[in-house]
DNA sequence: CCATTGTGTATTGTGTACAATTAAATTGTA
DNA sequence: TACAATTTAATTGTACACAATACACAATGG
């Protein structure tokens, strides 16, 4: 093993760990806001999607969130139990479960309307930096998906 | 809710989701390499730390990996079961458990010596881009930790 | 010396996350 | 119309991830 290889095996030199750590820490910053409404981060981003487009089925949600049915099925049942969504099996195709926001679920959007701005302040990052960073992440994600 | 607020509640406009998605997808790229050696990503980065500095205790590992004992205790017991590490309770302070690599665990480093390079190629990102991205992530992480 | 405070690990409970499998329903095709 | 292939969710099993708690031990201050 040469010097370069040894250097690159150090945790601090790994891009993946920086991503992994950043992701976890930022999600942790969301927690106080979300937990106060009885939500987790994954449940929150599921609602984000439904606020944009209601009545998606589970695989459509999974495509947008990059999550599979093993994650979404129990999560959506919890959201249903707290009466934020309704799961309705499609009459025309009984395999399909469509997910609809309840009135309570729709109203919750207002509660979180200022959360993105709040979170942005918490990170202490400049606007142009954030835009640049997101662009780089999206490009990276695009590269990976193509494989 | 004004237009800006509504825009920022869209999934695709959220930096946090870009981080979360990127992190998961890159870790997924690691899986074939790691699973072939019976390892998960979290176990791999734990070994990365130990290859740099052997004999750390659990809280020291947790500080470097940003993980708590609830995650590390069962993980280290699995690594011990597969004979890659040894958990030794400190004689002087019975609260402390120190973690040492076995010979088998030390030798595994060679097996992964070219993995960072391989992974880098898989992402299809340019060197300067990767460096820039990692710098931005580390700065963001620094900002958060200070809160 | 001893009560208090702090530290280090383990345990329990909840909630993802994903691979693999199953099961039901639909679709394509001979 | 049979029936194979595909699609869609749900289920099962393994592995994090973290909050909350418990517990043992250590350090410290009066």
TrEMBL record, chains A, B:
- State where it is primarily located: cytoplasm
Q: Which GO terms describe its molecular function?
A: DNA binding; DNA-binding transcription factor activity
Q: Name one GO biological process term.
A: response to stress
* PROSITE patterns linked to this entry: HTH_MARR_2
What keywords tag this UniProt record?
A: Cytoplasm, DNA-binding, Transcription, Transcription regulation
Cellular location(s) = Cytoplasm
A GO cellular component annotation here is:
cytoplasm
Keyword Glycosyltransferase: yes or no? no
**Classification via InterPro entries:** HTH_MarR-typ (IPR000835), MarR/SlyA-like (IPR039422), Transc_reg_Sar_Rot_HTH (IPR055166), WH-like_DNA-bd_sf (IPR036388), WH_DNA-bd_sf (IPR036390)
**Stretches assigned to the HTH marR-type domain:** 12-142
Q: Which Gene3D superfamilies match?
A: Winged helix-like DNA-binding domain superfamily/Winged helix DNA-binding domain (1.10.10.10)
Which Pfam family, any one of them, does this sequence belong to? Staph_reg_Sar_Rot
Which parts of the chain span the membrane according to its record? none
List the protein's name.
DNA-binding transcriptional regulator, MarR family
Identify the species of origin: Desulfosporosinus hippei DSM 8344
Starting at the broadest rank, the lineage of the source organism is: Bacteria, Bacillati, Bacillota, Clostridia, Eubacteriales
């Amino acid at each position: 093993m040469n010097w370069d290889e040894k250097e690159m095996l150090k945790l601090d030199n790994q891009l993946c760990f920086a991503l992994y750590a950043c992701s976890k820490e930022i999600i942790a910053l969301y927690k106080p806001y979300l937990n106060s409404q009885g939500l987790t981060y994954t449940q929150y981003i599921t609602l984000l999607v439904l606020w944009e487009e209601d009545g998606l089925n589970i695989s459509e949600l999974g495509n947008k969130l990059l999550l599979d049915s093993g994650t979404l099925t129990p999560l959506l049942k919890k959201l249903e139990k707290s009466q934020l969504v309704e799961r309705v099996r499609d009459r025309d195709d009984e395999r399909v479960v469509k997910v609809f926001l309840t009135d309570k679920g729709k109203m919750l959007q207002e509660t979180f309307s200022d959360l993105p701005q709040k979170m942005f302040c918490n990170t202490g990052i400049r606007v142009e930096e954030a835009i640049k960073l997101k662009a780089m992440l999206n490009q990276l994600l695009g590269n990976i998906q193509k494989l």
